[in-house]
Amino acid sequence: MLETSARLLRLLALLQAHRDWSGTELAGRLRVSPRTVRRDVDKLRLLGYPINATGGVGGGYQLAAGASLPPLLLDDEEAVAVAVGLRTATAGAVTGIAETSVRALAKLDQVLPSRLRHQIDTLGSALVTMPMPGPTVDPATLTAIASAVRDHQRLRFDYVSHDGSESVRDVEPYRLVVADRRWYLFAWDTGRSDWRRFRADRLSPRVPTGPRFVPRPLPSDDLAGYFALSMTTDRHRYRAVLTMYGPADAVAEEVPPTIGVVEPVDEDTCVLRIGSDSLDHLAVWVAAFGFEFEVQEPPELVEHLRTLTARLQRAAWRDRDGTTQAQA
């Protein structure tokens, strides 16, 4: 049997790991009686940990939110993950997060075991974090959105579109998405009866939130892929589909996820979906990726590639005096 102090720490770790525990389950994990579990729970309450008791056979326990934040128990991997996250957050896209992250990191570093501090310091000495350009989002806005997503509550907000126009939106919020160094809300727009994405830094939530809603099926099981496709292809005037003669992982290394979506076909072939409002951009991009390819659509891109090829060929064979050499 564990000593009382060690047992309390073990009990606290169990309560933090799961939302609900029955008294019988906790007694079995700690190898004590349910009565001892009840006494230990009372001791944790005296230390400031809010623990709710549930009824039923054998009773149960749940770690609740309190008026103040009690100490948290982290295992080695969790501590390293939090420290690394705080270091990278110093250049994040959230307003004011840098200073807050530094303060939290200083507190964590003070209590880290030497073995973990060495790991984190080694990583930190080699890590260079570039500050993110552009507007940042208020943490209160992210919290309001996340709460509405969690509680399935409709969200009303003032929104400024990319062209500067202002509107009031009423949505069913489903996910917060980080893409291209920005935060987005993915939601069902009740006014437009369609799925929409909204820049979080351009919206101002209204209070109170709307009524609860019954979640509808998401448009795709692969929401990240769906979102990437809408960001890189669907919103553009020209939407190209190309067969790329190269392995999907190799092509993906050359194609930033903010530009196109790569779908494997077999070991040596993949499909690239890419969009742009300019055929010139599309032609230059696909030619510069370094793979043989075949255009499936649109037909305008094929004709534009021929025009661009002829232009490049003339430039390659032109002398300094402007005359064009005869090609061998």
The main β sheet shows up as: 5 strands, antiparallel
N-C termini distance: 89 Å
Q: Please, what is the oligomeric state? A: single chain
Radius of gyration: 28 Å
Which percent band covers the strand fraction? Answer: 15-25%
Q: So what's the overall shape?
A: elongated
Please, how many helices? 11
Mean pLDDT: 82
Strands side by side in the biggest sheet: 7-6-5-4-8
Q: Class by helix and strand content?
A: alpha+beta
| Relative helix content | 40-55%
Total DSSP E strands = 12
Helix-strand string = HEHHEEHHHHEEEEEHEHEEHEH
Poorly predicted parts: none
Task: Kindly describe this structure.
The protein is of the alpha+beta class and 328 residues long. Helix content is 42%, strand content 23%. The chain has helices at 4-17, 23-30, 34-46, 76-89, 97-111, 114-126, 139-151, 223-234, 248-254, 279-288, 299-316, and strands at residues 21-22, 51-54, 60-63, 155-160, 166-179, 182-189, 194-199, 203-205, 238-244, 260-266, 269-276, 293-297. The strands form three sheets. A five-stranded antiparallel sheet has the order 7-6-5-4-8. A four-stranded antiparallel sheet has the order 10-11-9-12. Strands 1-3-2 form a three-stranded antiparallel sheet. Strand 4 (155-160) and strand 5 (166-179) form a beta hairpin. The longest helix is centred in the last third of the chain and has 18 residues, at 299-316. The protein is elongated, with a radius of gyration of 28 Å.
